[in-house]
Amino acid sequence: MDKEKEKGEYAIILEHVKKDYVLGNERVHALRGVSTKIKKGEYVAIMGPSGSGKSTLLHIIGCLDIPTSGSYFIDGVDAVTARDNELATIRREKIGFVFQAFNLLPSMTALENVMLPMLISEGDEKESLRRAKELLKIVGLESRENHRANELSGGEKQRVALARAMANEPLFILADEPTGNLDSKTSEEVMNYIHHLWERLGMTVIIVTHEPVVAKYSQRIIKLKDGVVETDIGKKVFHEHFDNEHKMKIK
């Protein structure tokens, strides 16, 4: 497949991506040559133990950081050579972020938190209000829209964060350990909402997680180890492996 056609088919193209950090006199190799492609509308989980490079990879995918070497294209744009203002536009207009710590403004209501990205992008206030209400309804929080963020439970905060991530109709949802601060029941609820939004709106979803039960919602699992791709498998293979492991634990 030629490069231009490839850029049209794939939302994400990473080739030989390396990322080093200098800590004092030591150079840390967070990524040691990651190559992978993610199709438009695909739902992918990135897994791996602590220190495997999964959050570093997500930061590069989200244009929050750039590789030390290698190439990275997002929606056909060369993110390595792009200027800072171009990367800022990509983050603002094409990517919705969901973080473990929610990152809501505690003094603002749920509705105001969801409206904020649209207002920052100079969206019409009336339309921003309408869309924020619609998104909160989709995540089951229409009755909590006027509650301040610090009055919400952890699961409700994450659902508000998810609605906020969808505010500017992004092409990508990037989630970094989105259930890390939640109990198992609430985690399942949040993941069901993410899956529902993916099915309904068709954006590309990439989730970093160390939890197999979270990864099970995805179509494909990329597992990192020591900064490289250890395995890249489809949903069916992963589910069979997970189910067999789960049965063994029950026994």
Name a few traits of the molecule:
alpha/beta; single chain; 9 helices; 251 residues; six-stranded mixed sheet; Rossmann fold
Describe the structure.
The chain has 251 residues and is an alpha/beta fold. The protein has a single domain (3-250), classed as P-loop containing nucleotide triphosphate hydrolases (Rossmann fold), CATH 3.40.50.300. The protein has helices spanning 3-9, 54-61, 84-94, 110-120, 125-138, 154-165, 184-201, 212-215, 235-250, and strands at 10-23, 26-39, 43-47, 69-74, 77-78, 95-99, 172-176, 204-208, 220-225, 228-234. Helix 5 crosses helix 6. The chain is globular, with a radius of gyration of 18 Å. The N and C termini lie far apart (48 Å).
